[in-house]
């Protein structure tokens, strides 16, 4: 009897054959202030002004979305720029939208949310993505600008 090799491929639950499956439109609203848009900006058929339209799949990662936003937003390419992602979706019980933060990425730094996919957040066609971009100077502002390392000056008299 001849030996038979069995090959088992690990397949993610939310992976998509991008050659066979049509992408869906994801409306992305970007804020460069470091804060997400107010949820009131999404009520009564309104949306914020700064919109990107991205065709993507449910297996797209937050890192992939970061790369797409950086293509059209040159100031977001600086190392250390933080992207905070929130899903905006209709509340099925009331005529309102809800917002849920789902993760963040940082330009030039690998993070725990980079490989999270849209499918993991149970995104539905018609949901919006709200991305707050924080430049590195703003989120490092907690540090004193006059900070100096005095470790080497132990014998200095103050």
TrEMBL record:
UniProt-listed Gene3D superfamilies: ASAP complex, SAP18 subunit (3.10.20.550)
A GO cellular-component term linked to this record: nucleus
Gene Ontology terms, MF aspect: transcription corepressor activity
Pfam families: SAP18
Regions annotated as coiled coil: none
Keywords (A to Z) from UniProt: Repressor, Transcription, Transcription regulation
Family: Belongs to the SAP18 family.
PANTHER family linked: HISTONE DEACETYLASE COMPLEX SUBUNIT SAP18, SAP18
Name of protein: 18 kDa Sin3-associated polypeptide
Protein species of origin: Rhynchophorus ferrugineus
Organism lineage: Eukaryota, Metazoa, Ecdysozoa, Arthropoda, Hexapoda
């Amino acid at each position: 009897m001849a030996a038979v090799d069995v090959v088992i491929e690990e397949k993610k639950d939310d992976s998509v054959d991008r050659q066979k499956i049509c992408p869906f439109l994801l409306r992305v609203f970007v804020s460069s202030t470091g804060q997400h848009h107010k949820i009131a900006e999404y009520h009564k058929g309104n949306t914020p002004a700064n919109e990107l339209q991205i065709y993507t799949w449910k297996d797209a990662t937050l890192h992939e979305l970061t790369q797409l936003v950086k293509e059209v937003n040159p100031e977001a390419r600086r190392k250390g720029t933080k992207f905070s992602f929130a899903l905006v979706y209709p509340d099925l019980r009331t005529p309102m939208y809800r917002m849920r933060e789902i993760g963040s990425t940082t330009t030039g730094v690998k993070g725990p949310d980079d490989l999270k996919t849209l499918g993991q957040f149970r995104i539905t066609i018609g949901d919006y993505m709200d991305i707050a971009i924080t430049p590195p100077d703003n989120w490092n502002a907690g540090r004193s600008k006059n900070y100096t390392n005095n470790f080497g000056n132990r014998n200095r008299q103050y």
